[in-house]
Structure formats: structure tokens, C-alpha cells
Structures
1.
Amino acid sequence: MKKISGIIAAPFTPFNQDHQVDYERIEMFAQLLKRNQADGAFICGTTGESSSLSHQEKIRIFESWSNHRHAGLQLIAMLGGTCLEEMKELAVVAANLGLDGISILAPYYLKPNLDQLIEVCAQVAASAPDLPFFYYHIPSLTGAYFSMRVFLEKAEAQIPNLAGIKYTHSDLMDFSLCKMHRDGYYSMLWGSDEILLSGLVAGADGAVGSTYNYALPLYQEIIKNFNLGNIPEAAALQKLSMKMVDLLMKHGGNRAGKGFMKIIGVDCGPCRLPLTSLTNEQISQLEADLHEINFPEFCSKF
């Protein structure tokens, strides 16, 4: 089974001013990622406001992104986390479109134990048995604080197409044990942009994140310096990433990311409730704050 790796951006879902999905703007987004040499896209994830999208909207978004599957972008479809039947249907859609992988969250309303979570994953993965399946571990949002090393040990017998984990948590020991399991058989995709360097040291095969949409050159430099053994330079660049992420959190987190996209010239439109959009004044303040830390030279180019 193909091993997915590299820098995988988690794209925003573009909306028009009526808060309807603007499918035509997905082409613009794909061009941005290709121009900045991203390795892939994690579609309809947290950044893409997945929990605010309907089943049919997700299908159409997958279809739109599938037009770019032969352009050097590895495409992973995030199917959801709450409705098993919808996730199974979306897995079939992703397979029929020829996408490169599928992923799900832990159910986050009626919360499972570990064995129940594995059964959910197994049923979804079995709906697209030829696609690599990634569990999306983000316990800060799902409440599923399970050991991922134990998850791999128990799940691999039930999920033949288990390919790895999108790991958005700070437990470096657990991550490292996952990476050591079966001598690095599984693709471990790091999900915390602001501490990417820590993930690289722990052996990450790749990384998935929102800030790779608008600050990809910075992370490419971090990875390049890490691979060359220039650890002090990589660490200095990582500190700049931390400053940038700190600013984003100050300005509203995920919704500030859409403001950042507008700053680099890619207008993704407003957010959907429960998220609210930044005002033009707030975007201007974000831009001023980014200049204050000398960040613009590391922005993605459109």
C-alpha cells in the first residue's frame, strides 16, 4: 500500500457571501498548493469546517478536489466522525473518485471506548478496502484520549488497509512508540504545525496542518534545515512559526486562518456558524501584527 508522506495542507472550505460552498474556488485553492509545492491536501478536515458541512456538500467537495488527483497532490478525504452510515457512504465515494486515502475522527458526541472506536474505524475502512485508512487523532476536540500505540496494536488485525494516523496531539512518547511499532510500518502524520520540529525528531513521515496553506515556505525551510542537520536554524524558524500561530490564536484561531488567506490574495469567503468571520478591520490588524514579526517573506505565494 502506498505510503503517504510530505507536507499535506488542510484546505479551508470556500464559501460565498450567502455561506454556501463555492465549489469553483476549489480550483484556485488547488493551484495555490501546487504553486507552492505542497505534497497533498487533507480535504474536509477541522480547517475545512467539516462538522458544518452537509453530506451532499462533502460529496461535491470531494468531486471538485478529485480533478487535481493527477497533479502531484496526494488527496486524503476526511469523512466525519459522528454518523457511521454517512462515513461508509463517503468512503465509497472517495474510492470511486480515485482519491489517495480516507480518514475519520472518533465519534465525539456519543463517545466510544477504544474497542468501539476500532469497530467504527473497521467498518468505515472496509467500505473502501483498497484505500489507505488513517485514523485522525485529535483528542482536544473529540475527547478520545486513547494511547495510539495501543490503538495500532489492537486495530491492525481488524483493519487490513490501516495506513497510519494523523496525530494532532502533543504526546511525543506515544507518537514515537507508534513510529517504532512494526519498525515504522505505519505512516505517522504530525498534526501540530507550531511544533513540527518535534514531530520530525520523533520520526514523522509527513505533516498535515492548516498553516501550510498560507505559510508553506516557512515549513519547507524547517524541514530542509532539519534534513541538513542545521538544527539551530530549524529551531529558529520553528520559533517564528510559534509566534505566527500565537498571533492566529489571539485573532480567533481557525477563523483567523481565513483572514490570513485573504491577506495572501486567496479569498475563501466567510466562515459558517458557530465560527464567525473576521471583520476587514480585524484582518488589517492581523496583517499589521504579522509584519511586526517580519513574517511576510514566509507567506505562500499566489
2.
Amino acid sequence: MKLDYALYQNPKLITVFGGSGFVGRYIVETLTKRGYRVRIAVRCPQKAYYMLQIGEVGQTQMLKTDVRNYASVANALSGADGAVFLPGGLAQTNKPNFQNIQVDGARNVSELTIKAGIPLIYMSTLITDKNASFSYARAKALSEQIVRNTHPQAIIMRSSVIFGPEDCFFNVLANFSRFMPIMPLFGGGQSKLQPVYVGDIAKFVVHALEGHVILGKSYDLGGPKIFTFQNALEEILKVIHRKKRTVPLPLAAGLFIGGFFGTLGKFPLFPTLITANQIRFLQRDNIVSQEARDNGYTLEGVGIIPKSMTAILPSYLWRFRPQGQFSHNLSI
């Protein structure tokens, strides 16, 4: 890893809550390359020791933290110069403590960061609605409100669907296609997505910590192109060289399937392929707002050129091809 050692003359310490997750590991890596020391606050450090390979020796540290516990959060923020809060994503909505982690975590982190006088970057989603029919959107809406009221200078990142080698969206759909004779388009498949690369989100965090974004604002983070869910699914099938018929499926049928797999996923031997919350999530448009574009509260607005989904997907979805990385494309 090439480093600019001039950056190490006065290294700042950033606490990243949830730093061992999909988005977190990219943020941690990007911060270490910029010379920051990073404290990775996680529930189970013993499951995240792979994170200590990132950066120089001693540049990262692991700390067991329960964001629902005020004292635990205070300990994680001791001596920190900034904080990034990455509560569980859509894939974690099936877990019983999801709501508490989102809401109580947001309250504790925002209260303690404002008390310490340090910047806070909070990870949210483009779909927030306190009246939504699914818990993810309701929890995010309430958490955003808590963060904004408690820490007025906090920067809120609202992302569309995130893609990258370890994502829980495109990988899941590609894996799903291996076993399904058809690919269902839940609710018709015409909802809109604006997939954003995980590395671009990490760049945004660095921009925010280094003062290149406006404090106290919410930023909509999306990629360069808008897809319908059907378009995105067809792009996945193209990349993995599989011929599958896409069939519109009524929402009720989708919720039944999501409920079945969500229940099955609660047992250790079965992975959670999809949940009812995720089905409901796919019914909403998930794109950057016109207001954010007009005001420059986007990746492009802070000088980051977002990477295209079509350019990145082949670099990691190839493993779902029938004959592996070097198979020929027979699906198109």
C-alpha cells in the first residue's frame, strides 16, 4: 500500500461504528490510506480480526461496542476526532434487535459526539418514511430525525442500493438465479434504482471529514445511471451469462416468498435469501432527488465522479457464471 507519510505528522483518530461490515471495511481502508488512525467499534471483535490487516501496524484498533449502551459508546469515542455511524443495513432487518440498534444507537452516538464537539457522519438511505409499511424505512426516518435534532452539524449520507464485491443485493440476486427457473419481478419490476459504488461512499466520508462538504446537510448518494429493477436484473443475468425469463409477480406473492425465506433464515443452517422487508423496499423508487441535484448535495456536487455499475459488476459477479470466470456469454 503506497502511503504519503507526510499525512502521519498529526494523525487523527476516527471511530467507525459498524466498521467491519460491507460499507465499513471500505471506509476504514480509505481512511487508513489517508493517514488516519481508525478505531473499529463492533459488537463481536473476534469475528472481525481480519480488519486488523488494513493499514500499517497499529493504525487500526478493534473495540467491542454496544451502540445501545451509552457508556459503551462513550468509551468508543474517547479521544476521537470524528465518528462515522454505520447502523445495520437492509439485510439486517430480520434480526430482533434491529430497531434498537438503529434508534438507540443514533441517539447515543449523536448525543456523545455533540458533547465531545466532534463531527458525525451518519449512514442512512434514500428511502426514509415514518409512515412506511416496512420497518427499515420507519427506523431510518426516526433515526435521521434524532441525529438532526441532537447534532445539527451532522452530515447524513443517504445512499441508493450499494454495489461492490461483498454486497447483499447483486450477489444475492445472482446467486438466486442459479436455482430459480425464472426470475420474479416483484410488484412488476418498474421501481427505479440508482446503484452507487461502495468505494465512492468511502471517498465521500473522507471528503466530509476533511471539510469538503457542508456541515448539517443531507447528501443523496447515487451512481451515474438510473435503472428499473427489471433493467438491473437483466444486467446481472447478462454479466453472469445466464438465460432466465423474468416474470412480473404480484406484491402479495412476493411478500409470501419473502416471509418464507425470512423465517427460514432465522435458523443457522439456512441463509436468508430475501425477506418481506426487502420486497417492500423494492416497491419504492430509490434515486437521488431533484432537490439534491439542484443544490449540489450529491457525489458529483462534492467533486466525486461515481463509478458505473456496468463497469464494476463483472469484476466480482463472474463467480456466478455456469463455467466460471472464463465462460463464454451464451445468454445474449
